[in-house]
User: Fold Sugar phosphate nucleotidyltransferase from Sphaerisporangium dianthi.
Amino acid sequence: MTSSYSPESAHLEAILLVGGQGTRLRPLTLSTPKPLLPTAGVPFLAHQLARARSSGVRRIVFATSYRASMFAEAFGDGSAFGLSLEYMTEETPLGTGGAIRNAAQALTCGPDAPVLVLNGDILSGHDISEQVGMHVTRRAAITLHLTEVDDPSRFGCVPTDEEGRVTAFLEKTPNPVTNRINAGCYVFQRSVIDRIPEGQVISVERETFPGMITAGELVLGYADRSYWLDVGTPAAFVQGSCDLVLGRLPSPALPGPCGEFLTMPGAEVSPSAKIEGGSVVGPRAVVESDASVHGSVLDADCVIESGAVVVDSVVGAQARVASGAVLRNAVIGDGAVVGSGNELLAGARVWPGVRLPPNAVRFSSDV
Ligand code: GDD
Ligand code: MG
Assistant:
C-alpha cells in the first residue's frame, strides 16, 4: 500500500510498553528487565529504538513499572539514538491499557494525531511508516500490526474482513479462529488513548480492543509477513539474538560487523574453539580450547572451559561452564557454576550463583 503520510514530518510520538516482569525468562529477568537483556551485544530495546528512529519516530515515552530506574540508566535522554526519551512509571503495574493511558500524559501531540504503541519484547521487520500511513489514510481509531504464527493460542487472535477491518479480538483463546495474531505494534488516535480510564488496571487486549470493536469503531489490521518474533521465552530470546547476528533481521543497533558469530570487546576465544549459529561472546567472556558454542548467548565475563558444549542456550554474566559439561536449550543464571560432566537439556534453568557439582545432572536417552 502506498501513502503520502510521513511519520517524520508529522513528528510521530510513540509509547513503549516495558513494565512487564518477564516471568517466563527467569532467572535472566530476576536482575534485569526483559527489554534490557543483552541481545546481539546490546540491550534488546536498542534494536527497537533504532528501528523506530529509522521509521521517523522522534520522541518515545517509556511506560515502566518493574525495575523502572534501569531504563533511564540504560538510555538516558535518548540523544545517542537521535531520539528524545521520557519515562513514566506506574507505582503498581496498570496493565497494558492503564500503562498507555498513564504514559500519554507525557505526549505532546494533539487529539487528532496518531500515536505509535509498541510492546517492548518484539523484533519486527514490518514497515512502520506504511502501518501509520494506512491508519491515517483510512481514518481508523486503532490500527493493529498483524502477523501469522503456527500456534495462535499463545497470542491475541485477530480475525479481519476483506477490507482489513478487525471483527474480533480474542486474547489467548484455546480455540483460535485464524492464525493471524496481534503482533504488538499499534497506532492509536491520541483521542482514543485519552478515553481509557485513568489510574485503573486495564488490558488493551481484553478490554479496550474488544470494547472498541463491539462499539463499531474502526479498528484496522495491517497484516504482513515480514520477520517477527516475541522474545518472551528463553528459546525465542536466544533465537532473536542469533537472527540479528546472522542478519535475518537487519538492525542499525548492532555493535559491529557480524558473521557466524559476534565477539564483544575483551572477549577471548581460543583458535580451536568452534563458535557458530549467530552466537554472541560477551564482553571479556572466555571460550577455551575445543569448546563448542552454537546458537547461544554468552554474557559478560562468563567462562566456557575447554571441551564444553553449549547449544541454543544462555550463559549469564560471570557464570562458568566447566570442561566436559553439555548445555542444550538451557539457561544459566549470572554467576552460576556448572561443574564438569553435567548435561543440562530441554529448558533446564540454573538460578544465579548456584554451584552444580561435577556429574550432578545427566540425561540419558536409554531411560
Ligand atoms: N508499563 C507496563 N505496565 N507494561 C506492561 C504491563 C504493565 O502493567 N503489563 C505488560 N506490559 C508490557 C510488557 O513489558 C510487554 O512489553 C508488553 O506489555 C506485552 O506484555 P507481555 O507479557 O509480553 O504479553 P504477551 O506476549 O503475553 O502478549 C502480548 O503480546 C503478543 C505479541 O507478542 C499481547 O499483546 C498479545 O495480544 C500479543 O499477541
Ligand atoms: Mg510478549
Remarks:
- The mean pLDDT is 93.
- Residues 7-230 form a domain with the Spore Coat Polysaccharide Biosynthesis Protein SpsA; Chain A fold (CATH 3.90.550.10).
- Residues 200 and 314 are 37 Å apart (CA to CA).
